[in-house]
Amino acid sequence: MATHNDFGKIAEDLAAEYLQKNGYKIVTRNFRFQKAEIDIIAEKENLIIIVEVKARSTDAFMLPQEAVTKTKIKSIVTAANHYLEEFDKNSEVRFDIISVLPDEKKKLIVEHITDAFEAFDAN
Hints:
Elements: H1 4-21, E1 25-33, E2 36-44, E3 47-55, H2 70-86, E4 92-102, E5 108-117
GO molecular function: nucleic acid binding
Organism: Chryseobacterium luteum
Family: Belongs to the UPF0102 family.
């Protein structure tokens, strides 16, 4: 299997492809603010969708989405707030997680968890 960084990039590419096929417009990828990063920012139906992509080579220890901790949520929310201010966006925001895991045949499976957390989950 690919190295950790390569696998992460492949997972983000799969997530972006999945979103586009499902009617989302990708606005930007890998948006950075200070030490925080948002993997994908998309738009659909007047919503701004902040997407955290989590990939694992196995779910033996935890599901990918379980790696989105309160600290990570706080970081994502901080970066999202900066993005909204910087680009003067007033739309409603939704926070999603896309999980990428291989199945038993090593085929990568994309799972989209909509409205995975709220900004106040960071507190």
